[in-house]
Specification:
With 319 residues, the protein is α+β, with helices and mostly antiparallel strands. The protein has a single domain, classed as ATP adenylyltransferase (HIT family, subunit A, 2-Layer Sandwich). The strands form 2 sheets. Strands 3-4-5-7-6-11-12-10-9-8 form a 10-stranded antiparallel beta sheet. It has a 3-stranded mixed beta sheet with strand order 1-2-13. The radius of gyration is 19 Å and the shape is globular. 41% of the residues are buried. The structure holds zinc ion.
């Protein structure tokens, strides 16, 4: 795999707040959902040295319970293709072939969806460089990618999302040396592994964009060897730009949805883990799940869907 770079001259997108502020008054449904977010119920669990938040967000039911099998996907009009989008939805171009949209079903105080113009599969391989460019340009946001079997509700149309910085606990957890270990430095990239963090993460930090892309590419290929039947290895990625450096958290996954998702009756928790959950905010669209979810459930869900620390360490050692 080779990362694709263009000669695009990157500049922070300064008009993004103006774009959001112009969009919301024109679109009643989205505007009302952003208002509801102000009163959304949240609770916090304190684990050993870090917090996990749970957000009760009924508007996320469509995304959490999205049917992503081939048959269901083919049967519905793609909501990210321009011709099927709501009339009120504005777009802001990014690079040659992306469009920045306001996400009408927010989790973050400012929540964007950034699809490619073309209807093309959700696969990160050729788009990782774009993700770094986007993180640089949207320097007030965390940009994230959900793999086709790791929370994306449109696995057939390539897209990123972005949410306001300062919302996900992982941003501050990364600076806690009890939770993060620097394993090695290669080609100007610091490579970290999370420890005792319930979900295993690899973090790349550098001011050198090309080096991050090269390291990611190697990691991607090694990880793919462990999941040869998948179109791409299962992962969630969070990326942001801070003090002149990119910080990229990569969560290798081993399962799409936990047993609780499919359970019947009392045992069911309708939660489909994706980047936001990996970042430390669990999204429960049903109030009953919000009320009953426990620390044990959270730990158990992470254990089921994330790669174990030993395998992750082997993966890092191959870098
Ligand atoms: Zn589409």
């Amino acid at each position: 795999m080779h990362a694709v770079f263009t000669n695009f001259y990157m500049e922070p997108i300064k008009n993004i707040n103006h774009f959001i502020e112009t969009q919301l008054p024109e679109w009643e449904m989205a505007s009302s959902n952003y208002n509801d977010l102000k009163n959304v119920k949240t609770k916090t669990f304190l684990f050993n040295g870090f917090e996990i938040l749970v957000q009760f967000n009924p508007k996320r039911i469509t995304s959490s319970a999205a049917k992503v099998d081939v048959k269901s996907i083919e049967a519905r009009p793609c909501f990210l293709c321009a011709q099927n989008r709501p009339m009120q939805q504005r777009s802001l171009p990014f690079k040659d072939d992306y469009q920045i949209l306001v996400n009408p079903f927010p989790i973050f105080p400012r929540h964007l969806t950034i699809p490619k113009e073309q209807h093309t599969d959700q696969l990160i391989q050729l788009h990782f460089g774009d993700m770094l460019d986007l993180a640089y340009s949207l320097d007030d946001f965390v940009v994230f990618y959900n793999g086709p079997k790791c929370g994306a509700s449109a696995p057939d149309h390539f897209h990123f999302q972005a949410g306001s910085k300062g919302f996900l606990p992982i941003e501050k957890d990364f600076h806690n040396t009890a939770l993060v270990e620097l394993v090695k430095v290669k080609q100007e990239v610091k490579i970290y592994q999370s420890k005792d963090y319930l979900r295993s993460a690899i973090t790349l930090q550098s001011s050198n964009k090309e080096s991050i892309a090269l390291i990611f590419s190697g990691l991607y290929n090694d990880f793919h060897l462990l999941q040869p039947t998948e179109v791409e290895p299962m992962l969630n990625i969070l990326a942001y730009f801070e003090k002149g450096e990119w910080i990229v958290h990569i969560f290798p996954r081993i399962l799409h949805r936990p047993a609780q998702y499919f359970a019947q009756g009392e045992g069911q928790i309708l939660l489909s883990p994706a980047s936001v959950d990996m970042g430390g905010v669990f999204i429960t669209p049903r109030e009953e799940d919000f009320n009953k979810i426990s620390m044990d459930d959270i730990a158990d869900i992470f254990t089921q869907v994330c790669m174990d620390e030993i395998t992750l360490h082997k993966l890092i050692n191959r870098i």
